[in-house]
Amino acid sequence: MSQKESHLLLPVDSAWLALERPENPMTITVMLRVEGLTEARFREFLRIYWMAWERFSFMPVRRAPGWWWEEDPVFSLHHHLEVVPGEFGHQALQDWVSARLNQPLPDYRPLWKFWLLPDAEGGAALLLRMHHCYADGLSLLGIFERLCPPSPQQAPVLYGAPEQADMGRWSRAANAWLRELTASESPQADAARGGDIPGNGGTAGRNALERATWRSLKLVNELSQFLVEPEDTDSSLNRALLGRRQCRWSQPVALERFRHIATATGVTINDVLLSCVASAVRKRLVADNTDMDEAVLHAAVPVDIRSRLPADIKPEPGTLGNYFGTVFVPLPVDGESSLERLFRIKHETRKLKKSWQPGLAWALAGSASVIPEAWRQPVADLFYRKASTVVSNVPGTRDERYLAGCRILEQMFWVPQAGDIGLGVSIVSYAGQIQFGVVADEAVMADPEPFLDDCLQELDLFPY
């Protein structure tokens, strides 16, 4: 193929192909409940708006020296939209979505597909499955925000992006990121602090050296802390995976309920949400007869790093790709009260706010596709043996949105768990409400419903 039709994936995108395992595919799942959405409306929506992103007509192909984007020569929307008739009730819909999670996407086409259930009870259900190499959750969220305006009479204004070949992009990104991490500040900043100007004795050089030394020491310290973080306690949450998954999701809960607890306790809403997950995990460990005084358990939490990237490599709004790192938050599973767990989570999240861990994780994950295959498993273990669950927090819009002129009632995301992690918890906010979603490998959790209930029951334990 020509240069225009074929080019290398960025390592941060191809990493999700390099680290993929058959029993734990790296696929993002999105479900929207859309009032009155019909096949004709949605097909037109896909043709005009969705396909404005050229990447959706490309598929990743393994070819030396790595993974390449190649345009599908026989691309047709017919292959990427399936309409499923039937009046699916809540339980039937959850079982049907679980079955789709276990259905592989064909690797001879672009790795994404929509299913539309126009007659589902409570509003049409729209399901999207997409491989992580196309985009991270925030990229997808940004696309839906652009394509789903706040009024049924309003059409999307800014949308779409060309898929451009840029062979040197990753090299520039890596070099700029390292310079940002380790370099001393600019000469102008030195002068502003009394640097090398006549009469100051050359203090700017010493200041620059001190800052470079401090940054280098911080980098070593951050890496050391990441490497020596203890692995999770053996439990039913970290068994060998079977490759069969079940998913469940909650009814919407008013965002104001979480905000009230956060305000009363002086924490953030995100702290309250993570505390709910910690409580549910604790109940699982107690059921396993774990020694709770010695128990260690981490949650892998994706963190957007777009704002931390140097300006010359920061992605443009609406750009597809993977721009997040991962922090491993210790969950206070030994805490016996809801308030103790909440305040300890606050301490851990504050400690990680200034950490370089997300940027380091982003860079290390990106290395997976450019290192020899024999080294990939150690890189994967470095990340995925540090946690027993993935917790993703997807911030949606505060107002209701409309897809193809039809009101979106609910939205739900599930992200892949990666490696040997078999449990994923998704927390999605949209239009003043929050929903919890759980996906679990059957070896870890045959029925995710009780775990989901435990997450929500934690709210009743707060004395506010």
TrEMBL record:
One of its GO terms (molecular function) is diacylglycerol O-acyltransferase activity. One of its GO terms (cellular component) is plasma membrane. Pathway: Lipid metabolism; Glycerolipid metabolism; triacylglycerol biosynthesis. It catalyses: an acyl-CoA + a 1,2-diacyl-sn-glycerol = a triacyl-sn-glycerol + CoA. It comes from the Bacteria. The keyword Acyltransferase applies. It is an enzyme of class 2 (transferase). It holds the Pfam family WS_DGAT_cat. The keyword Cell inner membrane does not apply. Residues 184-205 are annotated as: Disordered. InterPro entries: CAT-like_dom_sf (IPR023213), O-acyltransferase_WSD1-like (IPR045034), O-acyltransferase_WSD1_C (IPR009721), O-acyltransferase_WSD1_N (IPR004255). GO terms for biological process: glycerol metabolic process; triglyceride biosynthetic process. Residues 321-460 form the O-acyltransferase WSD1 C-terminal domain. SUPFAM superfamilies: CoA-dependent acyltransferases (SSF52777). Its EC number is 2.3.1.20. Residues 10-272 form the O-acyltransferase WSD1-like N-terminal domain. Keywords: Acyltransferase, Glycerol metabolism, Transferase. Belongs to the long-chain O-acyltransferase family. This is diacylglycerol O-acyltransferase. It comes from Marinobacter panjinensis.
